[in-house]
Model the fold of this input.
Amino acid sequence: MSIDILFKIAGIGIIAAVIVSILKKSDKDELATLTSLAALIIVLFLVIDMIGGLFDSLRSIFNLYSYGNL
Done:
């Protein structure tokens, strides 16, 4: 696992936290909630992409792509 993905997730979290705190102080709680939800969705897409890569690696390791070559 690369450390880059951890930095991306941490960066998204820090930026979202700053934006949410600014929006909450300016009494825009609805936008703050939408901002945190958008950050969560972005991070979920990153994690889902990583899980897809993991499953592709497992298929190639165990040679599950071709059942006909048994």
User: Anything to note?
Assistant: The mean pLDDT is 89.
